[in-house]
């Protein structure tokens, strides 16, 4: 039954059925994908619809409206956010040719906010909070018994825009957000950075060609290139008691093919709770510093982007990278002390 075709309305109705049955979003997505095939419904998408159901909105149809249907807009916005956790409301608005305020309102109604430049649910569910506490306790206890941070390789991606205008965010009142906006209809040029690093520095990175996105096949090819880079730059890791791989829950990372590839490489994937940029060194450390470095930059080409990134990585010494990784136990401890809630400060 893996090749069955399911309409959007049917998928939403199935999710509503499992919501009524008392299942959580992750369980519902797993069941749907086991019947209709992998990636029929992502966990993020299921969680979005479960939040709608909890708010009392059980409408699963795309009602005809003037212009783009609201549900269609929401679906497309959420699809972009799922594929690019760092997407700005401005870039989403330009891509979909809708008002930036519309994007902001949809994300706000869906319960999303930005933490460390990453879209996450504004209010974590009880299960999310318990998962964060449980995983942090597990990692903290393991690291005390068998320190593994110096065996950890961190994987992540971030879109790099050619134009990096420094924007100032401020609230004028409860409903209006003031932000500098680019010319309407202008689609920002950007390229995807894929980077792998550890406590000693950058191991490998790739800046994809303009217009190319990451998929499972490409990611598995990148893992082979990463293996070669580790052998050259970190031979001690190859001969150690095993590489611990840190990655988040974006689709190319969690596909069955990717998981199988990581098993073939013999790399252990460390536990990481979803919606937790405050526990991801790339988000709370590397990418924040990178954004400050590139702030105000106007780059004419992909090559210019790559040159600036090369300079950024080279200008950071071992102390910088080590600080970002070795901060993790403190982050885990704080999450436990704050009952799973997001951290408002780093370190």
Automatic annotation (TrEMBL):
This is (Mediterranean fruit fly) hypothetical protein. One of its GO terms (molecular function) is DNA topoisomerase binding. PANTHER family: HISTONE-LYSINE N-METHYLTRANSFERASE SETMAR, MARINER MOS1 TRANSPOSASE-LIKE PROTEIN. GO terms for biological process: DNA double-strand break processing; DNA integration; double-strand break repair via nonhomologous end joining; mitotic DNA integrity checkpoint signaling; replication fork processing. One of its GO terms (cellular component) is site of double-strand break. It comes from Ceratitis capitata. InterPro entries: Mos1_HTH (IPR041426), RNaseH_sf (IPR036397), Transposase-MT_Hybrid (IPR052709), Transposase_1 (IPR001888). Residues 10-57 form the Mos1 transposase HTH domain.
